[in-house]
């Protein structure tokens, strides 16, 4: 498998490029709108054709580049079927692998951060979106988030994967790139060790986090597979800026 981990600094988001060397087809997990040209350049450099974009959930802190990349490359938009997005070409769900050349992508339904969140397992790697971060987890106080559901998603499903499974999160704010299931089980201060459900629910309820500054634009934009809505304030334009001239020519 051809693999690249790409970082978008405005929202501290990781995008993952997975490519099949035999078929030349590729998938981008959680592409970010301001970085779509970077992704096209990386695909071109590797000689790959984008088959699918695949988001883990409806994001609140950035807008997906799924629609823009479909316009540029003819790729298909894959998204968790539970969210019911009319703009998606393919609804993915647990138990139905997505096969792209030699790549077998296994969706894992991991609600809690949002009610439709999915992680994706590919061989010895798992792409955990915002459900499981390196020594952390996503918040549970919006988009039908649920601390109880997240606890069971992580400890009951992700922590059930083999210990040497590599964990690639949707974000990191301390320049960390990868963890493992064993490390998160041992060291994650929110969900690891002997953490009880009751203690986790209490911890999440007491975080007191600020209202997400981009959520009112990101959620409708992502429900449209990456259409930045009108009226985004100037100080937030960097989250969804599209450069008009395509690298495709």
Q: Can you describe what's shown?
A:
There is one protein chain. This protein is of the alpha/beta class and 249 residues long. It has one domain (2-239): 4-Layer Sandwich (Metallo-beta-lactamase, Chain A), CATH 3.60.15.10. 22% of the residues lie in helices and 24% in strands. The protein has helices spanning 36-46, 66-73, 147-158, 181-187, 197-205, 215-223; strands spanning 2-8, 13-19, 25-29, 49-54, 76-80, 90-92, 98-100, 103-109, 118-122, 125-129, 166-169, 179-180. The strands form two sheets. A six-stranded mixed sheet has the order 1-2-3-4-5-6, covered by helices on one side. The protein has a six-stranded mixed sheet with strand order 7-8-9-10-11-12. α2 links the parallel β4 and β5 (76-80). α3 (147-158) packs across α5. InterPro entries: Metallo-B-lactamas (IPR001279), Mito_Persulfide_Diox (IPR051682), POD-like_MBL-fold (IPR044528), RibonucZ/Hydroxyglut_hydro (IPR036866). It holds the Pfam family Lactamase_B.
Notable features of this structure?
single chain, six-stranded mixed β-sheet, disordered C terminus, 249 residues, alpha/beta, globular, 22% helix, Metallo-beta-lactamase, Chain A
Lateral arrangement of strands in the main beta sheet: 1-2-3-4-5-6
**CATH topology label:** Metallo-beta-lactamase, Chain A
Number of domains: 1
Largest sheet: 6 strands, mixed
Number of strands: 12
Q: What is the CATH architecture annotation?
A: 4-Layer Sandwich
* Head-to-tail CA distance between termini: 29 Å
Radius of gyration: 17 Å
Mean pLDDT: 95
Q: Ranges with pLDDT <50 over ≥5 residues?
A: 244-249
In the CATH scheme, the class would be Alpha Beta
The secondary-structure element order is EEEHEHEEEEEEHEEHHH
Report the helical percentage. 10-25%
By oligomeric state, this entry counts as single chain
Task: Bin the strand percentage.
Answer: 15-25%
Continuous helix count: 6
CATH superfamily: Ribonuclease Z/Hydroxyacylglutathione hydrolase-like
Keywords: Metal-binding
Pfam families: Lactamase_B
Domain Metallo-beta-lactamase: 12-171
Organism: Thauera phenylacetica B4P
